[in-house]
Structure to design on (488 residues):
């Protein structure tokens, strides 16, 4: 979209709210919905990538060195990564902390 | 240009759909709508109508298939009734939100339970907020005419909204009536082929039916609201064009012997014809009474309705549905809301009649007239009454 979503007027809505550009959902900052986020304990991480594989968004990025972290723009804090982690190295931490 | 012929109204509606050259039909049989799609199905099978007829396993699938076919740019039609309309419910909102000009006949029937196959308006009143254009007809001729016109309204580039023609189940669908038909040449001139703004086309892909974030949902709804409200101009201009071609004129709010009448009945659908007989007889007996027939239900014709009712002292609003536990049955609530802004507004009294196929005769209207006048004289004890209920 040419404009940020919160600046589009009703007159500018396409017929039937149709979208012409593929992949426009990339702009949606769903990370705002999060009430908790994953934190990796690197000493226990074996860099297997299971967290990256199971993330439904995907909102997990692999850093140089092969360790993983969340992408705050997209991570909704669902906790799937923490539950599936092979070594239990991921902890879900409430946002306020 | 046309000819007059006696025919079952459902069959006449299927002929209207064929004359409109519908290209895609998906439907599931349900009483009392079945004859319409049954006849269309045989026309397609016999090669009389060049269309895709999709047999589906439910009305949920029927409307879903209609959305898909309309999205490819095909002129799309379906018909349903009561439980079928209810089963379509979630998909109905999507058809209008995607601005797909599907035309649907609803053969109005009571919703279960208790199970009833007979007529009332509880099916469509449970679907009044689906964002479709909604029109009521009172006889077979109107059902035929409005079916053809609905395609032209729905497909207008300023409208592009799905449209429902409501016809009372059995009372209209299964009656044999003499109707004036129009020929193919006239319909072809009146109704050009549908030219969609967007279609599902692999060469030019688009997303239809994407999700909307809270930042944009309200704007999308506003656009729908404005488009549906503004569609009234197109609706009346299409009706005027039909009147010029056929001599049969239609208005959003019809007046029957209503000039200077102190009391007005307000009806929708085929009850209008019954009320007309009662008005004739009451007027002959010296009563100052007339009739307003509401044809256009969505968009609601506020200005025309206010103008039609403003001069009366009492309006008796006849609903064919109940809004259990609500402030008023649906038509009464809408009419009262329309009148509220007037400084001098007529008194209103609601009567719910003809539920689940209960017969309504001219005598019923005369009795309601007497009862309503008495209620008003004494000060009404209730906002609305379930007419004829025992106990």
């Amino acid at each position: 979209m040419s404009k940020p979503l919160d600046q589009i007027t009703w007159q500018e809505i396409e017929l039937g709210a149709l979208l012409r550009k593929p992949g426009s959902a990339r702009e949606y900052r769903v990370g705002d919905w999060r009430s908790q986020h994953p934190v990796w304990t690197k000493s226990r991480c074996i860099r297997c990538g299971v967290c990256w594989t199971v993330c439904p968004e995907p909102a997990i990025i692999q850093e140089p060195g092969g360790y993983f972290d969340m992408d705050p723009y997209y991570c909704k804090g669902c906790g799937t990564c923490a539950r599936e982690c092979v070594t239990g190295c991921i902890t879900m931490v409430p946002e306020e902390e | 240009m046309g000819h007059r012929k006696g025919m079952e109204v459902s069959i006449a509606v299927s002929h209207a759909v064929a004359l409109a050259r519908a290209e895609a039909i998906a439907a599931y049989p349900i009483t009392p709508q079945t004859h319409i799609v049954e006849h269309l199905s045989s026309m397609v099978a016999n090669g009389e109508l060049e269309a895709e007829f999709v047999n589906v396993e439910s009305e949920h699938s029927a409307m879903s298939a209609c959305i898909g076919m309309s999205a490819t740019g095909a002129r799309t039609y379906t018909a349903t009734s009561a439980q079928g309309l209810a089963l379509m419910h979630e998909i109905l909102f999507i058809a209008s939100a995607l601005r797909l000009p599907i035309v649907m006949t609803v053969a109005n029937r009571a919703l279960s339970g208790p199970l009833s196959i007979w007529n009332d308006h509880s099916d469509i009143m449970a679907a009044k907020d689906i964002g479709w254009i909604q029109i009521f007809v009172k006889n077979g001729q109107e059902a035929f005419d409005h079916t053809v016109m609905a395609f032209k309204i729905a497909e207008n580039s300023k409208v592009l909204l799905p449209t429902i023609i409501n016809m009372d189940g059995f009372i209209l669908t299964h009656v044999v009536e003499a109707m004036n038909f129009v020929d193919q040449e006239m319909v072809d001139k009146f109704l050009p082929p549908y030219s969609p703004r967007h279609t599902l086309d692999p060469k030019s892909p688009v997303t239809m039916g994407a999700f909307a974030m809270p930042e944009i949902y309200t704007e999308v709804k506003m656009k729908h609201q404005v488009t549906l409200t503004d569609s009234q101009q197109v609706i009346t201009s299409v009706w005027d064009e039909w009147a010029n071609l056929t001599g049969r004129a239609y208005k959003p709010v019809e007046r029957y012997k209503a000039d200077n009448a102190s009391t007005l009945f307000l009806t929708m659908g085929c009850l209008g014809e019954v009320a007309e007989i009662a008005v004739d007889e009451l007027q002959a007996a010296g009563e100052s009474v007339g009739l307003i027939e509401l044809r256009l239900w969505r968009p609601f014709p506020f200005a025309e309705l206010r103008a039609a009712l403003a001069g009366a002292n009492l309006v008796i609003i006849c609903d064919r549905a109940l809004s259990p536990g609500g402030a008023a049955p649906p038509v009464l609530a809408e009419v009262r809301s329309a009148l509220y802004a007037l400084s001098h507004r007529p008194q209103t009294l609601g009567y719910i009649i003809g539920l689940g196929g209960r017969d309504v005769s001219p005598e019923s209207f005369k009795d309601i007239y007497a009862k309503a006048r008495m209620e008003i004289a004494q000060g009404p004890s209730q906002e609305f009454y379930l007419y004829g209920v025992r106990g």
